[in-house]
Structure formats: C-alpha cells, structure tokens
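Appendix B, example 12.
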Amino acid sequence: MKQAQRSPLGLIIVMLLGLMTLSGCAKFTGGSVDSSSASTTTSSTTAVLTKADQQISHSKMTAAQKTLAAVKHPDADVRNLATGLDYYQKAADALAKNQLSSAKVAFDTLENYQVTADTSFLKARATLHHQYQQVKLANSYFNSARDDLSVHELVAAKTAIDKLDQIAPIHPVIKQLQQKSLAMKQAIMNYEASQSTSSGSDSSTVVSSSSSSDASAASSVTSSDSTSSATSTSSANSATSSSTLTTQDVLKDFQSAAGVSFAKTDQFNIVKQTKTYYEIDVLHDNDQAETASNLTDVYRYYPDSGQVTKQDSASGDFK
C-alpha cells in the first residue's frame, strides 16, 4: 500500500526533470540557429560583392547593378558600391550622347564619390574618366577644324583633322567624330584639286556627301578665281600668318597677356596659327594639376589686340 502511494510522487519528479532537460536543449538549439544565420548572411554578401566585381571588370555595369539590387538586406559595402555604380552610369550615359555639359557635372560627382573602396569599381571609374578626357580633346579638334573650314583656313583645318585622327578611338564618340571629319577632308581635297587645274578652268565648288551640317560647311569652300598658280598658292596658304614673331616670342607674349600664373612644369605648344590668332595648348604636369580633368587647357592669343580667350571644356567655345 505504501509502495502504491510513493509511485505518483516519483512520476511527477521524473516528469519535471524531463521538462527541464527539454527546455535546456531548446535554448541550446536556438543559439546554434542564430549563429548559423549570421554566418550565412555574411557569406551571401561576400558572394554578391564577388559576383558584382566580376561583372564590373567585364564592363557589365547594368548586370552588376541588378546583382546588388537583388540583395534584400544590403550592408554598407553593398549600398556604397550600388551608389557608385549609379553615378558611373549617369556619367557614362552623358558621355555616350556626347553631351559634355551634362557629362562634366556627372563626372565631377563621380570623381568626388570616395565612399567605396571597391577595386574593380575604382579601376572602371579611372578608365571611364580617361575616355572622357579623350572625347573632350576629340571634340576640340573637330570643332576647330569645322570653324577653320567655314572661313577657308584650310591649313589650320587640316592640322586639326590630323590631330583628331591621331587620337585612339577608345570610345565610340571619338570614332563618330573621326568619321564625320571625312566630309571635311574631302572638301579640302576637292578644293586643292580645283586649284591645281589650268588657269582657264571654270570655278569649282566643293561638294560633300556627308551629313547636312558638314555638307554645308564643305560646300562653302568655293574657288572663285584660279587665274594663275601664284594666286592659287597664295589662297591655299592664307591660313599662315605673315607675322615675323618667333615661337618663343609668341609664347612669351601670350603668358604675359593671359594673366595666369603658370607653373614651371607647364608645357606650351602652338597647335594652330591663323591670320588673327595663335591657338596654344597648355599641358599641366599631372602631379601639379588640381584634378585629373585639368591636365590640358586650350587658349587663343590675338597678338594684334593682346586678347587671350580660353576654351570651355564642356562646350568647346572660346571665351
């Protein structure tokens, strides 16, 4: 009888011990799950960044943006890289459209963004910035050639076109400008051919089959008088100034008139000479330049008036 009374009490104790054991196991298991979850999240973020880096290194920027956007809970590294790629894309789009004014703003923003230290991104940004500099230079030569051709400054136009052709077509815009310059080349060739004909030949008009804007510029190059070879030679060389100033004199006078404190390491190069002005490239030493976008400035010096104008890097105009 006594044995029967003790059995329920023992059973209760056993049940309590069992519940305590299960509770302890549950807590231990829960801790293991939380640790595993954190480890999985870290591993997932690393995999995403690795995949995005590979896409960036292969110039697949849109794909990299999609990869980063797919992360549900991005950490700071993912967010910073995604922001950098957004700035990159805006700059690249403006450059592809050859909208240099918009591109300047976009590239300034891109260059000033220093939050992410992602190696692939930094390398891609440097490459795009180099392309931007070359596109600006190509536009400068193309615009100079077009302007010179419109006023029959053929020697200066040929010089500008030659410089344009020497730029490596590392961006589609450069190749497009080089293709468009073919119309101006043809205009000059036709004009020079007309000058080599006999003195009794009819006046000839240069015709271009390129775009309407280039055709208009090309067709304006007209030979109205080819009565003698002397006249032809004088007309063809009209772009050369009769000034007796030496190169050293021109550069010295230019620096005095410019009102700019040039560095000792700056290099000066007269790239064009017309009846009224000298066009001068000023190359700044990379270590001395304030920014990578300020490596070359282009000026026009008018010796008769002493006036100096500087080319706007965005529009290509001289002010």
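Residues 204 and 223 are 5 Å apart (CA to CA). Confidence is low (pLDDT under 50) at residues 26-33, 198-242, 287-293.
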